[in-house]
Design goal:
This protein is mainly alpha-helical. It contains 3 helices and no strands. It has one domain. 74% of the residues lie in helices and 0% in strands.
Length: 53
């Protein structure tokens, strides 16, 4: 997999997670986990680009 393919895949993953989160029922108890999931999914690409290689 090339760097460009990986960049596109990780961006697409973050977008899919965001779309999934929008489908969740709103509520105080369902805010923390989706927020953490979004943070984790959206940092995959920057972490990969920051790594060695």
């Amino acid at each position: 997999m090339t760097k460009e393919e990986l960049k596109k895949r990780t961006k697409d993953f973050a977008v899919r997670v965001l779309k999934f989160m929008r489908q969740l029922a709103p509520g105080k108890d369902s805010e923390v986990i989706p927020f953490q999931l979004f943070k984790a999914s959206s940092t995959v690409a920057p972490n990969d680009r920051a790594g060695p290689g």
